[in-house]
Specification:
This protein has helices at 5-13, 24-119. The chain is mainly α. It has 2 helices and no strands.
Length: 145
């Protein structure tokens, strides 16, 4: 294979116009084009470095946010556990309150019964003569139901 100036320039620049190279003027134009492209490389390099830096910053922020999300998730799990404990304690307290209310009702009923039992000796009947203290009263009464 024969290597010509135009084939070398075509390979270097990727510009097919190099095949039309018939003189130095075309070569000069192609070299200027190559130089312009080479001069752009530092700018591209700066942009790539800037993009890499931005990507690094975004990765740091993403990692920080991921950590915050995990901490928030753990806090929510702890809140759910505490909520379950509070709910359990509340149910136990409710049952205890119901037991105390039932016991209180029994105590009130017993107190009323005892008060009524104590009062039965204190009944006063008007129109019926009382007996003497050492004498027992006997009454023959008929009950009409």
């Amino acid at each position: 294979m024969r290597v010509t100036h135009s084939s070398v320039i075509t390979r270097v620049t990727g510009d097919e116009r190099a095949r039309e190279c018939n003189g130095c003027q075309s070569i000069e134009e192609l070299l200027k084009s190559v130089l312009e492209k080479v001069n752009v490389l530092p700018d591209l390099n700066e942009k790539i470095v800037g993009i890499s830096k931005t990507i690094g910053e975004l990765n740091l922020k993403t990692n920080r946010l991921d950590g915050e999300m995990k901490a928030t998730k753990n806090a929510i799990v702890n809140i759910h556990l505490e909520n379950d404990d509070v709910r359990k304690t509340m149910l136990e307290s409710r049952q205890l309150m119901l037991d105390i209310e039932a016991q209180n009702k029994k105590t009130i009923d017993r107190l009323n019964s005892l008060e009524n039992y104590g009062r039965r000796e204190n009944l006063i009947f008007y129109g019926i003569p009382e007996g003497k203290d050492d004498e027992r009263e006997n009454c023959d009464c008929e009950s009409h139901d």
